[in-house]
Amino acid sequence: MRFLNAGVASQNKLFSTLHMHKKSSFKSIYSVSNILDSNDSCRTLVGKKAHRSYSTVVASEEQPMAKKKKTLALLGTGWGSTTILKNLDTDKFDVVVISPRNYFLFTPLLPSCTVGTTENRSIMEPIRHIVGRHGKNIRFYEAQCTDINTATKELVLERSSEKDGEDSAAVQRTVASTTRISYDYLVVGVGGTYNTFGTPGVQEHAFFLKEMGDASKLRRRLKDTIEKASFGSISKEERNRLLHMVVVGGGPTGVEFAGELHDLIEEDLSKWVPELAKEVKITLIEALPHVLPSFDKKLVDYTQQMFKKNGIQLMTSTTVKEVKDTALVVRSTDTGLETEIPYGTIVWAAGIRAREFAHTLRSKVPEIQNNGRGLIIDDYLRVKGTPNIWALGDCTVSKNAPLAQVASQQGKWLAKALNSMAKDEQQLADAYHKIEHSAKPFVYSSNGSLAYIGGERAIAEIPVFNKSITAGGPLASLFWKSYCLWELFSVRSSMSVATDWIKRAIFGRHISVD
């Protein structure tokens, strides 16, 4: 029975009508098509034209009720989680993405942002753009997940907002609000952060290179250092200290930042302030006997030769014992001799550890999750000791290295496994255990290694037919740039980065900051 445009009716007729149908069940339906996301202040409708339809229908036993989809919560917007978003069939799941960062960051080009080779926004892909392009109905919460109840399958989210003071220099006040959401399945992809290894003074005095905020701070520091060193009244000793740039960590991030810094000096500072450019000194410190330990020895030797040629000092087999305000104390592992080295800027790229939420989850099952580096997972990416939870990327402890391509392959594998189980309701009902029957264990397949070393040169190690092809030089640099453009998540990002490179080649860099 349907009532539309009911007019004024007599009271007796109305009660009579209701009495005749008092045993009937009525259901009010409110439908909104293609809801993409929502937050506390608004709802955004994307896709087909949204509509609202109100109707009253009589329920019957023949009418099937809509089946509730499983809620899959994704923590993080890094390589693993974003790859899941691109490959998951969200018609089968209610997907909730939670991250304090509302964009995907293309980390291989992060060092180039510190010196103005690439602009920040060019390598930041908004998560809502990624979702919108694939027409997926996903809720996104820009918040930090601070706690979890594994028994009730509930997450505690905290959102922090900053309020400006009376002027731009005023101290900002942070106001936090919390909420809780439930999940059926959880994927932890919160990634990693810098590891100071408990070295005194690192947290207080060093710069890091893990997030876009780190790159912006470092870019501002480089600009301030150059301007301060150009002051006429400064002493020569103080100028030499200010212009000494120290990089701690000889992995890809440290090597690439040293290469980018060299390019800034040779290609731009030499034109802006030639008298200062000659005095800038770059030192790279590595605890192991050589840099880039995961690369082929021929490429390592080539890199070290190019660094020597470019005037970058290498201090291998050297550990940092303490970082002071204007100097750091290092110790040679060969001789045991300790030395104090003055510096102007120190960049810490020496290690990685899981973020805080991984340790929060570990604390729920300390007898099983007993590795301080991160979450212990099995070959199916399941977090040991915690049902219905998977983890991937840098927050995990496994036989795989903490690399972007590892996390990306893990995300693709897990999305494929979940899509396969979604076809069978019985399997999906117990996906945590049934995944063993619907998918093979995850196996990482290396796509090769690339690193930019400065001077328009790069090194490349590419696996071909169970062999590795190694190359270093300008051609490898061209291959590295082509690979970066290909791997970027959108045509917009690829065009933006390519434009940045063209502008840099024609007009030079600029490290202006507000």
Compute the CA-based radius of gyration: 28 Å
The fraction of residues in strands falls at: 25-35%
Please count the beta strands (DSSP E, at least 2 residues each).
29
Mean pLDDT: 85
- In whole angstroms, the N-to-C terminal distance is 66 Å
Number of helices: 16
Helix content: 25-40%
Major sheet: size, sense and barrel closure? 5 strands, parallel
Shape category: globular
Low-confidence stretches: 1-66, 164-171
Strand order of the largest sheet: 9-6-5-13-25
Summing up helix and strand content along with how strands pair, one would put the structural category as alpha/beta
List the helices and strands and how they pair.
Elements: H1 11-20, E1 26-31, E2 35-38, E3 43-45, E4 53-58, E5 70-75, H2 79-87, E6 93-99, E7 103-105, H3 110-113, E8 124-126, H4 127-133, E9 138-142, E10 144-149, E11 154-163, E12 173-182, E13 185-188, E14 192-194, H5 202-205, E15 207-208, H6 212-229, H7 236-242, E16 244-248, H8 252-272, H9 274-277, E17 281-285, H10 297-309, E18 312-315, E19 318-323, E20 327-332, E21 338-342, E22 345-348, E23 352-354, H11 356-362, E24 375-376, E25 389-391, E26 396-397, H12 404-422, H13 425-429, H14 431-438, E27 449-454, E28 457-464, E29 467-473, H15 474-487, H16 491-507
Parallel strand pairs: 5-6, 5-13, 6-9, 13-25, 15-22, 16-17, 16-22, 17-18, 24-26
Antiparallel strand pairs: 1-4, 2-3, 7-8, 10-11, 11-12, 14-23, 19-20, 20-21, 27-28, 28-29
